[in-house]
Amino acid sequence: MKGRSVLKTILYFLNFIAVVCLLVSYLSGYISPDKAWILAFFGLSYPIFLIINLLFVFLWLIAWNRFIFVSLVAILIGFNNLRAIYPIVFSKPDYPQNVKIKIVSFNVHSLYGNQRADNQQETKSKVTEFLALQHADIICVQEFFAIGEDFSQTLLKFTNSIHLDYYSFKNYREFNNKLKINAIATFSRFPIVNFGCLRLPGRSHYAIFSDIVMNGDTVRVYNVHLESIRFGNEDYSFYSHLTEPDIEEGTPIKEGSKRMLWKLRKAFIIRSKQVNILSAHIASCPYPVILAGDFNDTPSSYTYHQLTKRLSDSFLESGHGLFKSTYAGKLPSFRIDYVLHSEAFRSVAYRTFEVNLSDHYPISTTLVKIP
To answer: Cβ(105)–Cβ(314) under 8 Å?
Structure first.
C-alpha cells in the first residue's frame, strides 16, 4: 500500500509538471519572443505536452481518479491551439459561389527538390507541371530560383507554362549578377495594379504584396517567407545522430544542442519583428487581404497568433487531418505553410499535396467572396 501511495504521488507530481508546461506553451502565442524567447520553445513543444497530458487523461480515466480533470481542463483551455492542429468543422454554410478564387502556395526550395543532389532542371519541370495542373487563379511561390537569362524572359516563360498572365516578384537580396533570380514571386490570372515589399533594415526581403483587381474589386495578396532557422548540414547530421543511434558519432551533444538552440532563438526573435511590421501593414490595408506563404512557425507560435488576430486560417475552415504537416524535411513535421484571409472571404476547400518536389508540401485553398 505504501508503494502504491508513493507511485501515485510521483504520478501526481509528473502530471502537475506536464500541465504547467502545457499552460506555458499557450503563452508563447501572446508574448513576443523578442521579450521572452524561452516561451517560443514551449510553444514549439506544444504537441508533445498535449500528448503527455492526453496520456494522463487516459491513465486517470482507467484508474477512475478525479485528477483526470486537471489535464482535461488544461487541454480545453487551449482549445484554439488544439483546433489549429485538428480542425473541427461542425457544418459548412452554403455560401454563394459565383466568385471563387483558387490560391496555391509553395516553397519550391530553390527548385532543388527534396535533396540538394536532385537534378534542378528536372525538378523545375516537375514543379511547373504540378502548378499548371492546379488551374489556380493565384500562385504564391517562395524561393523561386533561376539563373542564366534575363529575369523577364524567365518569368514570362514560367507564366506561360502555368497559364497565368501577370506576376510580381522581389529578390530576397539584390544581386550584382542581373541574370540571377532568388525571389518571392506571385503569379496571377488577374491584373496586378500595385506592388510593394517588406524587410527589416539590413536583412533580406521577407514579404511582397500585390494589389490584384478581380472582377472589379481590388484584393491585396501578401506572399511571405518569414525567417527560417537556417540549419546547415552539420545540424542535420547532429539531429540524425540523436534520432538514429546507428549513425557514426559526430558533434558532441552539448556543442550540437547549443548551436541548434542558438539558431532557433535567433529565428524566433527575427520572425517576431517581421510579424509585428507585417501585422501593422495589414491593419492599414484598405482592401480585403489574402496572406499566403511559408511562416516557418507552428500554429501555437506568436507568429500565427498575431496574424490570425485579423485573418482567418483556411485550414480551420475547410481542412482536415490530425497534425497535418506541410514540411517534408529531415526535422519533425509541422504545419508551417498557410493561406489566411480577411472576413471578406470564406474557404470552401483546402488541400495539402504530399508530393516529393521540395522540402515543403504545396497547399491550396478555394475562397469564395462573401457579398
So the answer is: no
| C-alpha cell recorded at residue 278 | 507585417
Q: Are 290 and 222 in contact (CB under 8 A)?
A: yes
Provide the 3-class DSSP secondary structure of residue 45: coil
Q: Residue 331 and residue 231: Cα distance in Å, rounded?
A: 10
pLDDT per residue over 286-326, tens digit each?
999 999 999 999 999 999 999 999 999 999 999 887 767 88
- Write the secondary structure of 146-182 as one string of H (helix), E (strand) and C (coil): EECCCHHHHHHHHHHHCCCCEEEEEECCCCCCCCEEE
With a cut of 70, say whether residue 72 has pLDDT above it.
Answer: yes
Q: Which residue has the cell 515543403?
A: 360
Strands 180-188 and 192-199: unpaired
CA distance 226 to 294: 6
Please give the single-letter amino acid code of residue 297: D
Interatomic CA distance for residues 207 and 226, integer angstroms? 8
Instruction: Kindly tell me if the per-residue pLDDT of 268 is higher than 70.
Output: yes
Name residue 29's amino acid. Answer: G
| Rounded Cα gap, residues 181 and 150, in angstroms | 9
Q: What's the CA gap between 172 and 213, in Å, rounded? A: 26
The C-alpha cell at 304 is 500565427
Q: What is the CATH T-level fold of the domain 100-232+239-369, as seen in this structure?
A: Deoxyribonuclease I; Chain A (3.60.10)
How confident is the model at residue 238, as a pLDDT? Answer: 39
Q: Which three three-digit cell numbers place residue 204?
A: 533580406
Domain range summary for the chain, segments of one domain joined by +: 2-77, 100-232+239-369
What kind and span of H or E run contains 195?
strand 192-199
Q: Are 68 and 60 in contact (CB under 8 A)?
A: yes
Read off the C-alpha cell for 163. Answer: 497559364
Name, in order, each residue with C-beta under 8 angstroms of 147's C-beta and a sequence gap of 6 or more.
177, 179, 180, 181
Question: pTM for this one?
Answer: 0.89
Chain centroid, CA 169 distance in Å:
20
Q: In this structure, how many other beta carbons lie within 10 angstroms of the beta carbon of residue 268?
A: 27
Q: What are phi and psi of 240, to 5 degrees?
A: -60, -35
Report yes or no: 325 and 334 within 8 Å, Cβ to Cβ. Answer: yes
